[in-house]
Every structure is written in C-alpha cells, then in structure tokens.
Specification:
Blueprint (H helix, E strand, L loop, with lengths): L16 E2 L5 E2 L3 E9 L5 E3 L15 H13 L8 E7 L8 E10 L2 H8 L9 E3 L10 H16 L4 E4 L2 E2 L4 H4 L14 E2 L8 E10 L5 E6 L5 E2 L2 E3 L2 E2 L5 E2 L2 H13 L1 E3 L3 E8 L7 E13 L12 E6 L1 H5 L7 H15 L11 E2 L8
Parallel strand pairs: 3-6, 5-8, 11-19
Antiparallel strand pairs: 1-2, 4-7, 5-6, 8-9, 10-18, 11-14, 12-13, 12-20, 15-16, 17-19, 18-19, 20-21
Amino acid sequence: MTAVESTASDEPTPPGVRTTDGQTTTAVCAAVCFLVTDEGGRILLDALNHRAGVIGPGETPTSAVSRKTASELGLAVPSPRGLAVDWIPAAPGRPAEIVYVYDGGTLTPAQIRAILSREQELRGPQFIEPAALSEYMTPGDARRALAALRARINGGGPTLLEDGRPTDPTVLDELEVLRTARKAQSWPWHAEPVTPGLRVKQSWGWCFSPAGRVLVLIGEDTGSACLPGGSTALTGPAPDRPETPAETLHREAWEEARVRLREPLHLGYLYDQYDNAGPCARVRMAAMLTSVGPVTEDEATGQTYARILATPEQVIQLFDWGREGPRQLEAVHAARELLGLPRAGRQPVTQLPVEGGVS
C-alpha cells in the first residue's frame, strides 16, 4: 500500500482477545505502508485492486513493507527507512490500529514507466501534489501522509503520530509546510551567464549561513516556500536603468527577510520561454548571510515570512522543480565551495535566529 493509507476499513475486524479474568478486549491491528514520490515531490496513489497492508504472521514491520513494495510496485527496498508510527484510535466496529510508515524513495521516470505497465495489479497510479491529498484520502490518512513527507524532508528520526498528528511537531509541522499547492517551475536550467539580450526578469538567492545551510522563507498564511528574491526594478537618478541581479537580491533579501548578504555569485538562470512579455531569464545567485534583523512585514506584498535554515538537499524538496532541481543543486554546491563554506550534513530544519549573527 502506497500513499500512506490506512488499511483498517478494508480488513476484517480481528476477533476479541479473551483475558484471564474472562473479559473480552479489542485487538490492535498493525499495518505498514510506504511513501513514494516522483522527482517533483508528488506522492504516488496506486488505487490497488487489493490492499492488504496488515503485517502477516511471523513478519516484522520492515519485512512486511519490503514484501509490499516488491509485490505492488516491483521495487526492491530491503532496508527501508522508517518515517512515522501512527496510532489510530478504535472506532465502532473497528479496532485501534498502529501504522508503520516507511520511505519508499523517489522514483525515476524509468521506474514510473515500469509501474504503469503493471496493469494486472494497478487501475491507474497517479502522482498527487501533497496539498491535494485530502481530495483523495480520508482526513486521517491525508494527515499521516503529509506528516510522513515532512519527516522525510526534516531528516530526523521517525515521527510519532496520533491519528496523523505529530506528538512532537517539527518546525515544518508547526509552519504547516506544503499545505498549499506548489507552483510547478520546471523551466530549463542553464549554469552559465545570461545570454546577451535576454531580459532578466527575476533574481533569487541561495543565501548560505556559515555552516553551509540555506535560508528559505515560509509564508505564514500559506505554508509555501520561496527563496529570497524577486522581480527586478528600475533604479538610478532617472529611474530608467534596470537593477542588476545582485542589486535585486540585496534589496529583496532585506525587504522580505531582513537579512544582509555579502556580494553574490552568479549561479545560472532558468529560461522561461513563455513569459507574457516574451522570453526571459530568472537568475539564481549564491551569497553568504552576514546579519539578521527582526522579522517584519514585506512592504511590497504585505506578506510575513517565517525564516528557516535547511540543507540544499532539503530545500529542493520544498519546491516543484522537476528534473531541473538536481541540476541546479550541482551549481549550488559548486558556488558553496567557491564561498569556502562546508557541506552541511543531514540534520533537522531549524528557524533562523530572531536577530543578530548567523551560525
């Protein structure tokens, strides 16, 4: 069973268990499921003709989920990583349930094509934007799926859930990250200077802390992620000169996030051929954070952002950049090395300090 769905409603109710004093107590059903995504971070719903995620006699949760990924998707995941353990309370006619959620990984296009060919088992697998899970699943199943996805991104240990709600919420849980549908941004990536004559529309920054993590802004009213930056403006005494990408990034980083930066490096650009005003470049830059001011409302948009620090690998999981994401990530790490910064190891996402220096 994929997409982190419960199996209790599809399984026969286990018989009552007779205790030593002659009373009957409700059994607890134990089940497994696994989270599978595509390269854009969408979650696989498999619509199986048969769903049997209950752990079998003599099986452990890990062996059960390895069996299920092999039988349902044809994937070999011998030692899957645990993402969550969910306690689902009993309901009339249904026992309490414990669901172990494992990471089934990110599928390549070739793996997806192979799954689509398994017509004898699948009625129509599809990949769903995380924010849309509630349209296809029960509320509890959708909560569990989103909590498991946040746990995967966060990179800590498995999260404990009660009816899909974390008992010890992470920063990503508290900000309800991914509750709003992401915008697909699969423009082609060019790790080179902007082609002469091509209009530069935007400049966005990978802004590094000294420890090698990156600043990401989370809209407090949407849970949506963005990098600091925005559209270029006109400047100069007779405001008729477009800002340079570096000028745009400096200005937007202060207006949106109240952070100061060292001089940025050019990473590359995304080529948008279908912009309303014609082809344009959406520039990406890299810079080191130097200081942080208090959070304030962005005067241009009225938006207030929470500021988090994440590894570059965590950052790309917050966006829908498709197959271009890993290519941009390569350029990010090349720039990080030029800036003399370490590669941040796997660690949970944290909030940026309220004010002062950056670590």
